[in-house]
Amino acid sequence: MPLPTEPIGSIPRPLELLQAIEARGDGMHPALDPLYEEATRDTIARMEATGSPVITDGEQRKYHNFWTYSVHGLKNTSPNGFKIPFSAGHTRRMLLLTAEPFRYKRYADQYLDVALRYAHVPIKQAVISPSALSLMYPAEGIHDYSREQFIDDLLREHETEVRRCLQKGACKVQIDFTEGRLAMKIDPSGNLLSSFIDLNNLALSRFSAADRRHIGVHTCPGGDRDSTHSADVDYAELLPSLFELNVGSLYIALAGEADRRGVLETIRRHLRPDQTVFVGVVAPIDPHIETPEEVRDRVLEAAEYIPIGQLGTTDDCGFSPFCDDRSTTRDTAFAKITARVLGTTLAAEVLGVH
Amino acid sequence: MGSEEEEEEEERLRSAALENAKSIHRARQRAERELIAAKEALELKTQELARSLAVMQATLESTFDGILVTDGERRVSGFNEKYLRMWSIPRELIDAGRHERLLELCATRLADSEGYLSRIEAIYATSPPESIDVLELTDGRVYERFSTIEYLDGRNIGRVWSFRDITAQKLVEAELRQQREWFQVTLASIGDAVITTDTLGRVTFLNAVAEAKTGWQSAEARGLPLERIFNVVSEYTRQPAPNPIRRVLREGAIVELANHTVLISKDGSEVAVEDSAAPIRDANGEISGAVMVFHDVTARRRAEAALREADRRKDEFLATLAHELRNPLAPIRQAAFIAQASGASDAQKRWSHDVIERQIQHMSLLLDDLLDISRVTRGTLVLRVQPTDLAAMIDAAVETARPRIDAKRHTLKVETPDRPIQFNADPLRMAQILSNLLMNAAKYTDPEGLIRLSAKCEGEEMIIRVTDTGIGISAESLPGIFEMFTQVSSARDRAEDGLGIGLALTKGLVELHGGKIEASSAGLGRGSEFTVRLPMRGATEPGRSAAGAATAEPAPVRRRVLIADDNRDSAETLADLLRMEGHAVTAVHDGPGSLAAFEDFRPDIVLLDIGMPGLDGYEVARRMRASRFSKDTRLIAITGWGQEHDRERAFSAGFDYHLTKPVDPRRLSELLRSFRY
Prior knowledge:
- The complex is a heterodimer of chains A (354) and B (677).
- Chain A has 354 residues and is an alpha/beta fold.
- Chain A is 40% helix and 12% strand.
- Chain A has helices at 15-24, 33-49, 109-118, 130-133, 147-168, 179-186, 191-204, 209-212, 235-242, 260-270, 292-303, 330-351; strands at 5-6, 77-78, 83-85, 91-93, 96-97, 124-128, 172-176, 215-219, 249-252, 276-282, 311-315.
- Chain A has a seven-stranded parallel sheet. In chain A, strands 2-5 form a two-stranded antiparallel sheet. In chain A, strands 3-4 form a two-stranded antiparallel ribbon.
- In chain A, a hairpin with a 5-residue loop joins strand 3 (83-85) and strand 4.
- In chain A, helix 3 (109-118) runs parallel beside helix 5 (147-168).
- Chain A is globular.
- Chain A starts with a strand and ends with a helix.
- With 677 residues, chain B is of the alpha+beta class.
- Chain B is 48% helix and 22% strand.
- In chain B, helix 11 (298-340) runs antiparallel to helix 12 (346-378), helix 12 crosses helix 15 and helix 18 runs parallel beside helix 19 (617-626).
- Chain B starts with a helix and ends with a helix.
- Chains A and B meet through helix 5 and helix 7 of A and helix 1 of B.
């Protein structure tokens, strides 16, 4: 593929799986394994059918969502962590750490064990950022477990997860940093965002330059039930800090932005020579299925600002970051992915990239 | 949830987030500090690594060898400048980093390019732990190439190739080989026996001569103690002689074995030896072994014994000579006394004259023999070879020996060929040979014995035999019968004269003629036989005219003769003799006087002594020859100096003849009569 193109990660689960989860009331029940396995197999097959040179497993097994999968079920947590309000009016609540120590319950490389059985093309794995999980530590603190200790444990667990995914064979590890724009909402001074950037860079500093070329960061204003949590925050407040992350790839939602050219201009100003920016050319929360031509045009528009050698395309976000999101169908998701792939190809032909 | 609760919740979230931010900030600061420390440590490590690399490179550059390192893909991963210089490799070629290209260039410098490249491929293919090869370059240099696998953490990561210039070493090896070969050839060629040992006295080498003398082969003797193969005993006591090697190894000095030692070889045979031994030292001067050289002295000891015997015979001869010379002096003195006596009768005076004449003749013969044997042994006697009549030669010899034969009343029988025989020989010397044999026969045969002389031609040889019925010769005396100073011991009781040089002189004269003489005897008391064989060179039958001319009586001749001799008696007696023959004679006694007399007297013949005061005879002769009166004058030197060079000097000075004292009056008369004017 002359112009790189990659998915973000999540694909809507099959209805049968969702119904089974609802019936069980526990998405981690072993009886659901066959359904998870089938969902993963089907997702990979349909993903490869889109022609995408890089695929994901659709995060079929991530429960409950892209943010809490690694800590879901920890005994030293409570469900009343901080809330994330979405523009649709609903909220999603994170977990709260109640006692030491902080450890992952599971690492994302276990999803690769299943996916690699079915994949025929390179597969990437999305993991949650340490900055997102840092919000699990309570404001009042934990007795005999300082915030510093928590940060150290958090960084170590994140590093472990990323290394395991790379060693398992993931062609890319994508760190989901959707809380970046949210941080500006929480703290308009930018200090929180800066701390998020620092925390994520502290984690990234534990990897070699060669490893970091296989690590990327995804940011978006959130996507759940066709709504966002921080689209009202100006990208310009996030993007300069975003490019301070020491990663080789940045996956930036763009298709749903009102001022795409403004965003592209900001990107152009802050993009580093060693970074590739994958711009979102399809919007998962938009029910309209983009045509390849529409995608082509969006790519060509981006190419006006971003050097061809540093340009790639992606989806604005996952199609179902929260497993119970049924706002988008699997067919729609794969259709949009197909359009992305074809549109990127068309753009490459126009740009003369071979 | 109400907005107040939401606000509280948001505030808690914000508070938590900001607290997190502080922690994160502190964590970042800590991380930055750690990063700085890590960076500093890294820099230090980098410096150490750079230094290690520099040291490693310096080590590579310091090594004596040229070094090339290749990886598993045959790429160059390391090298030193020595390698480039050894092979004259341009910088751009080594920078290209491919071993194949280097090999192509190196192959062009080698005598066997194909073999070199094949060997490299074999090494790459089989990857032996080590390889070693000798490479011969076309310019004469020789390299030794060593390669070994390069391991890192137990993994084969490539190969290290090292090259060493061993040209000088090869030259030294060749020279050592040559020296070893020369040494072996020398040891094999020298006439002495050589044995070497190690520091414990065990044999390490025998040369061929040592093998022959000891009876041991070098290979079987190697490692054995020297005493085992070099068994020497004292010649006199037969006790073992000390081992010289032991002393050499102990003292580090050259040692010579005691004299008179005998080596007993492996088969028991014995040989007289003399030897010496010396230490062998290495380059540091330490003794690394010993060498002994010995040689067979049997022949030398025999020669020494022979010299001692010859010396003894010489002493005996000198004593005899003194005796033989003194003998005639007594009768001469007595006869002279009688002749001078106032009451001596004419008969007594004539008797005295005869006695003196005889004794002088005897002494003259003795001295002639001495001079002759001296010339023969020194090779200065020259034969006057001419056609010689066999019969006349025999007659002359018989005439000379007749008095001795007749004195003992022996019977002499002469048997010669019917026809006359002439052959090339010196007639006087041949007569001397035969007269010596006849006189010996007479001397060693009891009175009234039989002496037989026979002569005959056999093929190309003239064979003359003289046999007698005398005392014979024992078998042990026969081998030395012709040696100087030999007198048959069994005849010592005979009151006979002689110096014992007659047969030696006879043998020398025969051999000068190219002939041989042999002696034989049936034993003591059974007579002797001497056989002379001569080559018949130019033998012919003489013409009749020569015989006729030889029998004519000479007519009386009267000459004017000048005698110059500072010995007045000699001059006056000679003058009286010549006057008695009718010559007119003047005698002077010095050189100037002889010149004056020559001018006044104008003689036909001058008889000049050589040793005269004022002017010697040579100078007188030269001046006389320069005179206008000397055209037909015969100058005759009469002197006691009778060597060949004396004769040549006389002739060079202008003399016509050279006679040695005492002059035979008859011979002088014949000579004077032979002159024609």
